Amino acid sequence: MPMSRWKGLLYKEWIVARPGLAAVMIAVLLAIGVLPFLFHRYISGETSVITYGFVLSSFTLLFLSYMPVLSLFTSLTMDMKRADIWLHSPSSVGVLVGAKALFAVVTTVAAMVWLVFILMMVFLTSGGAAGIPEELGTGVFIGFFGEIGSLVLLISLIQLSVGFLFWSIYQGLRHKFGRILAVPVTFLLFIGSFWLNDKLSGLPAAERLLGAGEFRFPNTERLTQYSDLGIELSGSLAAGGLVVALAVSVLLFWLGLLLFDKKVAGA
């Protein structure tokens, strides 16, 4: 029963989100599959098509990093108009929100895979190795996007957790004090969280913890050696910072669930 319930909730998200997902997929197709050829022809023929593809891919990945939190906000806002979904559903608030968050993350991963697929097609149709050093194989590029995709996914998870927490804070404040007061108070708390994070991360103990260990990205390191590709990224990430980021994200999402559950119970 629990598994079938999850399937039902995910299917509901899929039905509602199909138009938006189609728009995202088409936008990625145009940005990566069409614009590089247009830029190469009308802006600068000296720059290879695949180089334009890499540059546009970086901006597209930045856009996709916001996809989970925006998807979650959209779904939650739609369902907030129907109190019966939360009050009379056999599933808990945690399961309802969790299904929405999981769907948002899965669709973001699908969009990233779609982006990589299109870029590979651009690579093949633009003359293969045009603008690409011969010693770099296809596996390096697949590994590179796997590494960068993991980073983007991590960033999107952090944004999802932070966004959901402050969305829940806003909903609670709006329910008690109205929208006029809820908006500025939520905004001030959001700004204050950056100040608190800056102070805490600047402590000596925190700096040692956040800087401990190292995850290396060998494919990213190899590609950054070729400036013609327009790739300028670090080939490593502090392991301590990664673990803390994931732990804090889980904590913030859990706090958001507690606040939202309290808001629903008081609705």
Automatic annotation (TrEMBL):
It comes from the Bacteria. The chain crosses the membrane at residues 21-43, 49-73, 93-124, 144-170, 177-196, 237-260. Keywords: Membrane, Transmembrane, Transmembrane helix. Signal peptide: none annotated. This is ABC-2 family transporter protein.
